[in-house]
Amino acid sequence: HELPVEPTADTLSLYAAYESHHIAASSVRTYLSGICHSLEPFYPNVRANRNSDLVRNTVTGCVKMSSHTVNRKAPLSSADLARMLEKYGRSHSHDDALFLAILFVGFSALMRLGELVWPDSEALCEYRKCISFSSLAWRSAADPDGDGVEQLSFTLPGHKGNRFFDGQTVVVTARSDAANALPVMRSYLKLRQSNPATRLHPALFVRADGSVPRRTWFINYLKANFANDIRGHSIRSGGATDLAIRGVPDNVIQ
Fold first, then answer.
1. Would you list the domain boundaries of the chain?
2. What is the phi/psi pair of residue 81, to 5°?
3. Is Ion transport one of the keywords UniProt gives this record (predicted)?
4. Of 139, 226, 239, 240, which has the fewest CB atoms closer than 10 Å, so is most exposed?
5. What CA–CA distance (Å, rounded) separates 8 from 48?
6. With respect to CATH, is domain 78-253 assigned 1.10.443.10?
7. Dist. CA 211–CA 225, nearest whole Å
8. Secondary structure of residue 217 in the 3-state scheme
9. Do residues 187 and 88 touch, judged by C-beta distance below 8 A?
10. Share of the chain above pLDDT 90, in %
C-alpha cells in the first residue's frame, strides 16, 4: 500500500480500520498492544502513537460499526405461571412439583436461575452454594394496611454480589393472584416429605432421585413449554417486570 514503515498514528489508525474488517473489532486493541510490545525497541514512540486520539477514536468507531443488536430473552409473566400451574399443578410427579416451586419462587423473589439449581459442570457444583432445607421458615407479617400476610423465607448462601457466603435472607410473600408461590411450595414440600430419597436431603430443592437439579434439567422444562425467547433469565426479568406493572417503585425493585 506504499505506506511508511514507521508506525505513526496515521499508520496505526489505518491498520486498525483494515483489521476490523477481518477480525472482531473488539480484538483490534489486543493486536495493537502486541504490535507496540514488539516494535517499541525499534520505534520508541510507537506506544505514544498508539494512545493518540486518532487511533483511539478509530478503534472506538470500528467497534461501534461492528456492534450487533443485543438479543435479550423475553420476561415471563404471571399469566405464564398460571398456565404452568394449570398444566403441572395437579401432577403427582415430584419433579413437576419441583419445577413449579423453582419457577414460582424465582419469579417472586427475583432470583437468578443459578441460585436455584446447580450448573451442568460437575466441577462447579458445591453443596455450600445450595439453599439449605433447614433455613426454610414460614411466618406472618403485616402488610401496609395492617392485615396479616403469610411469608416464607430461606437463606441464600451466596450470589454474584456476595462471594464470601455471608448468607442473605430471601423472603417470598403470599400473593392474591395465580403467581402465588406459597401453595406451590407447600405442594412440593408435601411430595418431598413423602419421598424417602428426599425426606432427609440437606438441600431445599431436590429431584425425586435425590439429586440436586441441574440447569439443563430446568431449561428442558422451559423448552417444552415456551418459545425460544424464554430461558433461565426470563424468571428474574419477569418478576421485575411484574413488580413494575403492579406499581412498585424502581428503587424497591432494585
1. 9-65, 78-253
2. -65, -40
3. no
4. 139
5. 9
6. yes
7. 23
8. helix
9. no
10. 61
